[in-house]
Amino acid sequence: MPGGNSQATQGAGQSSVRPRSPASARRLFAVKLVHSIIFWFQVACLAYLAYAVFTRSLGWPVLIPIGSILLNGVLLLLNHGRCPFTTLAERTGAASGSVTDLFLPDWIARNIFRVSTVIFAAELVALAVRYFGGV
To answer: What is the pLDDT of residues 3-39, one digit of tens each?
Structure first.
């Protein structure tokens, strides 16, 4: 916007964003890319746990996705339920701090913690039943 206004409005119905330099835009893209890679790794961990339940693959490799998901949960708890990438994105120039808006549909971005927590808990119960119950 002319006049050096610190806020620029995109279009009707879209949120306002701070103007960024090309370097800042690249940094924000990198934050979103790294966050997306971590997200998809966590999805792969959930998928592997489901695979382990169905195939009875209950060896030590199951501990890697469990540990990764638990570490992610601890980081969220230590950050008061807020993803550390949100703060990083805000510092980099994102208007809302949301780092998932570029690479994930909005519904998934808003509900991912709830959905993945339920899936993870169900997988842990199923793994325990398979391991201790022999079912």
So the answer is: 444 333 333 344 444 546 777 788 888 888 888 888 8
* Cβ proximity of 128 and 63 under 8 Å: no
Q: How far apart are the C-alpha atoms of 72 and 41, rounded to whole Å?
A: 11
Q: Which residues contact 92 (CB under 8 A, 6 or more apart)?
A: 24, 27, 28, 31
pLDDT tens for residues 63-86? 999 999 999 999 989 988 888 888
CB 49 within 8 A of CB 62: yes
The stretches of the chain forming alpha helices (DSSP H) are 22-55, 63-78, 84-92, 106-133
- Global pTM? 0.74
Count of residues making up the chain = 135
Closest CA to 127 of 68, 15, 51, 75: 51
Position 55, amino acid: T
Residue type, 117: T
